[in-house]
Design a protein that fits this description.
Layout (H helix, E strand, L loop, with lengths): L16 H9 L8 H9 L2 H7 L10 E7 H7 E2 L10 H5 L11 H9 L7 E4 H7 L8 E5 L1 H12 L8 E7 L1
Helix pairs in contact: 4-8, 6-8
């Protein structure tokens, strides 16, 4: 489990005073990848611990990898080993057109072909040693359902090349 010290009283990350206070309050843990901290510890602490109760931050490595669009499409699954297609309606619907600045996650995919914040993943084999859920195979997405779902749909529509590289935070 994540150390209790990493639990945040805030629920939505935004840069500024609250984030700086959080980093000060977690002491030595502030050296952990800040994008992992913001997505997992700051916003989804309880969910993460319920999915990975045997996770030990002191014995784990948090690093970065890049996967191609095709690898993202083929390899990354979500809870219950489901395909990440449940946010396709945001792209297929007309409500977003002309309003990209309204939703930064979608606008980043549409305008640059990738995301501005790397999603968090774990290999299925490791996930199974840390909890007892039905995780995605061969790679389980921990955080970033909108980002990955949007990229998959944008790829299906032919708007992003299969060879584009996308950064991820990976737990090892």
């Amino acid at each position: 489990m994540l150390p209790d010290q990493l639990r945040s009283e805030y629920r939505l990350y935004k840069p500024g005073e609250e984030w700086e206070y959080y980093l000060e309050s977690i002491g030595e843990y502030s050296s952990v990848d800040n994008e992992f901290l913001s997505q997992i510890c700051y916003e989804h602490y309880d969910r993460f611990n319920s999915y990975f109760p045997k996770f030990d931050l002191t014995r784990s490595r948090i690093s970065r990898i890049k996967l191609t669009t095709k690898e993202v499409y083929d390899l990354i699954k979500y809870d219950g080993n489901t395909e990440l297609d449940f946010w396709y309606a945001h792209i297929d619907g007309e409500h977003w057109k002309g309003k990209l600045s309204f939703y930064q996650v979608l606008s980043s995919i549409v305008e640059t072909g990738t995301w501005f914040l790397p999603p968090v993943i774990i290999r299925h084999e490791l996930a199974e040693t840390l909890g007892d859920r039905l995780y995605g195979q061969p790679i389980h997405l921990i955080e970033g359902t909108h980002r990955v779902s949007y990229l998959r749909r944008w790829y299906e529509l032919g708007n992003v090349p299969a060879t584009n590289k996308h950064e991820f935070i990976i737990l090892e």
